[in-house]
Amino acid sequence: MKKILMTAAILAAFLAFLALPSSQASAAKPIRWKATIVPIDGANLIGPTTDFVGGVDNVNINYGLDTDSESCGPTGNSLSYLLLQVFNPSSQSLQIINMSGFSGYATLPPSYGFPNTTTNIWPDCVADFLSSGPHPTADYPVVSLRFSTCGCGNTTTDFMKMGVGATIPVHFELLFFSHIWSCPAPSAQKTFLNLQMNAHGYVKTVGSLPDIYITRISQTEWTAYVDTKFDNGAFQKTETDLDSASADWPVRDSDNILGQYATCDWIKAPKGNKRIWTTTYHYPCAKAPFKFQIVFTKN
Questions:
Q1: CA distances from 132 to 59, 98, 128 (A)
Q2: Residue-wise DSSP of 96-131
Q3: In this predicted structure, which of 90-99, 145-154, 233-242, 271-280 has the lowest mean pLDDT?
Q4: How far is 293 from 223, CA to CA, in rounded Å?
Q5: φ and ψ at 173, to 5 degrees?
Q6: What is the pTM of this model?
Q7: What is the helix (H) or strand (E) element at residue 14, kind and residue range?
Q8: Nearest 5 degrees, angle CA 148-CA 154-CA 158?
Q9: SS3 track for 166-216
């Protein structure tokens, strides 16, 4: 099973920005992707009045293929993804508005939460953090929005091989990353939560469209539609204890809005009289309606 460590996630994010892939950086015929947040009724996610352009003003937009062996998709399949990353500082940003109706489970200590919010109570702190202003921020210097074909029963797993007018359900992830957790924590490290929204295209009723899907509009345009409550029945589990010894996000367990924080304990080693640090990762979870549309254009 493929594991995606938080360390790898943040390093990959910055490396992707510093070294654009050949599809964007080729001297022969450079491809510059752009992304446009579409204004629609009831949208929770809004963007700048101008397009996001890959490689400009701390923005990275990337299409790619990766090998997938996750349990949520056919073993050995090649997944396709479209990725928008916005880095801080930037004159462009993402903003979440009017996101309400949060429900969730958590055992969140008061010392863990989000900066510049009025409450540490989960999930109220999530709503406060998301709606408090544009993202990224100084404390969350990268926001990563990713769509992939993994885990939704697709026969077409490459966005580039979709026919014009074709529609496929997709896996959606929105990541707000503050820092890598480690034990013992550096003295200057602030205990801010990392936050991930994660959902899979889900057909609620027979004949309806999935709650997250991508349609190929033309040879150069793909529109992603998100209208979810993070209630994908195929990915539910009993949400009573998501604590883990692993820093891997439990993305294959359930569609959720997940926080991540770690606690450190100084324990006796299994052998001998030495003591060692042990880290436990905690994943408080929540659900709320989330709706937006974004167009990826290959220039």
A1: 22, 11, 6
A2: E-S----EEE----TT-B-TT-S--STTHHHHHHHH
A3: 233-242
A4: 7
A5: -140, 135
A6: 0.84
A7: helix 6-18
A8: 50
A9: CEEECEEEEEEECCCCCCCCCCCCCCECEEEEEEECCCCCCCCCCCEEEEE
